[in-house]
Amino acid sequence: MRHTPHDRFEKFPSWGQVAVLVFGLFLLFLILSAVQAYDPESVALPAMAIIVALYLGCGWAYAWQSVRGFRRRRIVEYAVLSALTCGAYIVSAPVCIYTVAQARRSMCRWNARALADGLLVYAADHDERLPVASSWAEAAREGISHSDRWKDGVRPTHCPKLEVAWSYAYNSALAGKRTSEISDPVRTPLVFSARGSEKPTSGGFESFDPEHAGRGTIASADGAAVLVDRNSAEKLSWNPK
Quick count: other Cβ atoms within 10 Å of Cβ 122? Predict the structure, then answer.
């Protein structure tokens, strides 16, 4: 049986199929968002944009063929479908961006806390005395040598947002001090976010670098790690007596 141009485009997806397709794309975008959040260095977010671009490009090519095939209303139908697809991407893309930022902040806090814990373990093994500034990185590594965080090439030495070897510094005011001499460990920074460097550094408040939207990570002498802005960081006890 011979098909006319009118018949060739009669099998355009129904609105139920369109709804399933858009919902499937939305779920795909959420899965890619989760992948990006788990690994901030992945390319899931650009992949979302590529999928949308390819989908819209192929779909509009089909819609143009529909116009040539005297099914002009298909262009309106696909315009609605395109709007729904773009809507799914617009809704999920900010979720992906937000989860990536949150994942990086969480990893940054985890890294700083791991270094602080390593220093506290080192102090516990050395008569409660924290290391000197020149060897704090080796002391932290010794303290957390039992952890998987310092194995298989993984190092808790820099924020995942920065492509440097080190982005944390040691509070030099605590170098050589006994942990029992710190009167307020909750408010005393031990390890904190600093400007990126190829070698471990030390310093005080002047070296604090809030790289996460105006906030930086501080791991205190009690082992807790938080994100604070520069004004809040300045009020902490950087040089305990």
Answer: 22
Span 31-66, pLDDT tens digits? 666 665 555 555 666 666 666 666 666 655 555 555
Task: Please give the pLDDT value at position 106.
Answer: 85
pLDDT tens-digit map of 164-179: 889 999 999 999 999 9
Q: Cβ distance 112 to 168 under 8 Å?
A: yes
**C-beta separation of 144 from 150 below 8 A:** yes
Alpha-carbon distance of 82 to 54, in angstroms, equals 12
DSSP code, position 195:
E
Task: Say which residues have a Cβ less than 8 Å from residue 73's Cβ, sequence separation at least 6.
Answer: none
Read off the pLDDT band of 108 (50, 70, 90): confident
Looking from the CA of 94 toward its CB, the CA atoms found within 13 Å total 5
| C-alpha to C-alpha distance for 14 and 12, rounded to whole angstroms | 6
Among the listed residues 126, 214, 116, the one whose alpha carbon sits nearest the alpha carbon of residue 169? 116
**What is the pairing mode between strands 201-203 and 166-171?**
parallel
- Closest of 218, 232, 119 to residue 175, by C-alpha: 119
**For 177, which DSSP code?**
-
> What average pLDDT is seen over the chain?
76
What's the rounded Cα separation, in Å, for the pair 213 and 229? Answer: 9
- Distance CA(75)–CA(65), nearest Å, equals 9
Place of tokens 């790690």: 225
**Distance from C-alpha of 68 to C-alpha of 199, rounded to nearest angstrom:** 65
Alpha-carbon span 239 to 172, nearest angstrom: 9
